[in-house]
Design a protein that fits this description.
Number of helices: 2
Strand content: under 5%
Number of strands: 0
Distance between the termini: 26 Å
Order of helices and strands: HH
Structural class: mainly alpha
Largest sheet: none
Shape: flat
Length: about 40
């Protein structure tokens, strides 16, 4: 069965390094890998 859907793509640009963004994200929300694993369970 073919379905169609609409998505909204948002792109965010930062002067920070990826490492800095990940570090700040994890400080706020926890470990990314653990969050992803929990979402898949």
């Amino acid at each position: 069965m073919i379905e169609s859907f609409t998505v909204q793509h948002c792109e965010h640009v930062s002067q920070r390094s990826l490492e800095d963004v990940v570090t700040r994200f994890e400080a706020e929300f926890g470990n990314i890998a653990e969050l992803a694993t929990g979402a898949l369970a």
